[in-house]
Amino acid sequence: MQMEAGFIGLGVMGTPMALNLVRAGTPLAVWSRSKERYDTLREAGARTVEHADAVFASCTTVILMLANDHAIDAVLGRGTPAFGARVRGHVIVNMGTNSADYSRALADDIAAAGGRYVEAPVSGSRKPAEAGQLVAMLAGAPDDVEAVRALVRPLCRESFVCGAVPAALTMKLAVNLYLITMVTGLSEATHFAQSHGIDLALFANVLNAGPMASDVSRVKIDKLAAQNFSVQAAITDVLKNARLVAEAARSANIASPLLDICHALYGETEALGLGQQDMVAVVRAIEQRTASDRKALRL
Fold it and tell me: Which of 160, 194, 226, 266 is 20 to 30 A from 138, alpha carbon to alpha carbon?
């Protein structure tokens, strides 16, 4: 009989991930600060609990899909006496995106308290999460990694073993660098096309038929052509990821000129009040720069 696993964090990504685990037959106990998605999970067959401690009490493996370092520390009770009780004898699986330094320190603290730790960040947004088409990157002790790899198989199109912590998160940051610059470039190209009077539906058809097309570009160009900024990967989340990549580049004395421009643009987009819209809303910051440049030329 398969052992029950725990899942903490039922956000935009976490909820479809948990649902896919349950639908694949994984016994799952779930907890989230927000209880609004509990009915959906219960209907699918998950066991919902009122307190995080109930997950740790019944599940040896606990998956975390949380927004940031602070949320992880709070759930684990890191820095408090509760930390040891929650992680001792457990495999803690971190599927979120954090800095490599944070993940390395967390792994050390969990090991010191008698627990085990696996990094398992994923590449993909809400749509791939719903379809079970994420790409997972894993790092940790080999036996733990293989067990977690089998556990998360219903969530993933593919998974890759990256080595020791924090190799998976470093890999994720490299992937994010490419994703962020690619989608920002696509948004800028759309602004260029529109400003020259090109029909955006035709522009989308040309791009989708060409050698640069991908699953991501097809979805994003269609959103840009329709001016549909409903969220798949939110501006605020992309800004956080851009910051993590920029910080990792600075700490390693690596140049990241394209990423740095993107980082600034996503900050400008959030400042426009668009933090909860999809990342293609970065086109609004590009439009604002165009308007500012034209105004300066008229002065």
Answer: 266
